[in-house]
């Protein structure tokens, strides 16, 4: 989720997993609340991240590249904690599709979630273009800065990394769920730090599509539509292959140095 060609930003995604309520359907109040949460959450995610890019370009780099990376990581963390308990805080079609493929999200809700995410991103990008006009009107989307192949591979890898972390902290009951927002936000920050200058570190089709629609800049957009989806699906599937174990929880925690036993000693 970062802008290439000298300035970067990250995105964002993502993301706690919320299981479908069997009593709810696509026209229920709870489902509508989920969609509103996804629109609002994606809006503020994209607005804050892209604003850091536009302001940095408009003020001769006062925010700096590390500052942009931190902005993306922080806004992801904040929004996950804000609405994760309502919609799951996907904010990212890649995450939604990956959850659906791994049977952790109902397919019937995927189209509405994706539309809500793209709508939030487009509204945020449109707001920024209205606010920053004239000399301050800078494209806040993602563009490949080198070869398309390099961009595709990097976007695949960083989205794989993001979804692998999301799957671990947000879907595995052995993980410390309260730290999900912090872990996901930190992953986005790290990805933007090293991938932002090359690909824009999108990791999110909605993050790239919103500004592309507003600024009518579609160069290399197909990469940001396909690579993150494939990366997220692969990350989720790989985590699922290591999730299952016959070991009891007590035996698992003995090998985890960051967990402590009941007597207070390191496990």
Automatic annotation (TrEMBL):
PROSITE patterns attached to this UniProt entry: MIP (PS00221)
Subcellular location as annotated: Membrane
Highest taxon of the lineage: Eukaryota
Keywords, in A-Z order: Membrane, Transmembrane, Transmembrane helix, Transport
CDD domains: MIP (cd00333)
Location, primary (coarse class): membrane
SUPFAM superfamilies: Aquaporin-like (SSF81338)
GO molecular function, a single term: channel activity
Cross-referenced InterPro entries: Aquaporin-like, Aquaporin_transptr, MIP, MIP_CS
TM region(s), chain numbering: 62-83, 110-132, 152-170, 182-201, 221-239
Coiled coil stretches, renumbered: none
Membrane topology label: Multi-pass membrane protein
GO cellular component terms, semicolon-separated: membrane
Extent of the signal sequence: none
Membership in a protein family: Belongs to the MIP/aquaporin (TC 1.A.8) family.
Name the UniProt record assigns to this protein: Aquaporin NIP1-1-like
């Amino acid at each position: 989720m970062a802008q290439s060609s000298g300035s970067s930003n990250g995105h964002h995604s993502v993301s706690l997993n919320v299981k479908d309520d069997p009593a709810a359907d696509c026209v229920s109040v709870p489902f509508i609340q989920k969609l509103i949460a996804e629109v609002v959450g994606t809006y503020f995610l994209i607005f804050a991240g892209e604003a850091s890019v536009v302001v940095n370009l408009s003020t001769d780099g006062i925010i700096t590249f590390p500052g942009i990376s931190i902005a993306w990581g922080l806004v992801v963390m904040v929004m996950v904690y804000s609405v994760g308990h309502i919609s799951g805080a996907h904010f990212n079609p890649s995450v939604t599709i990956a959850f659906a493929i791994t049977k952790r999200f109902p397919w019937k809700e995927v189209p509405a979630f994706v539309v809500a995410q793209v709508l939030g991103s487009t509204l945020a990008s449109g707001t920024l273009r209205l606010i920053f006009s004239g000399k301050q009107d800078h494209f806040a989307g993602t563009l490949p800065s080198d070869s398309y192949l390099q961009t595709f591979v990097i976007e695949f890898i960083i989205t794989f990394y993001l979804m692998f972390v999301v799957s671990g902290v947000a879907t595995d009951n052995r993980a410390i769920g309260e730290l999900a927002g912090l872990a996901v936000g930190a992953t986005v920050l790290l990805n933007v730090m090293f991938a932002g200058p090359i690909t824009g570190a999108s990791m999110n089709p909605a993050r790239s599509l919103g500004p592309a629609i507003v600024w009518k800049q579609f160069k290399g957009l197909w990469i940001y539509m396909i690579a993150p989806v494939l990366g997220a699906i692969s990350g989720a599937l790989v985590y699922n292959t290591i999730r299952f174990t016959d070991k009891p929880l007590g035996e698992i925690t003995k090998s985890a140095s960051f967990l402590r036993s009941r007597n207070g000693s390191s496990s």
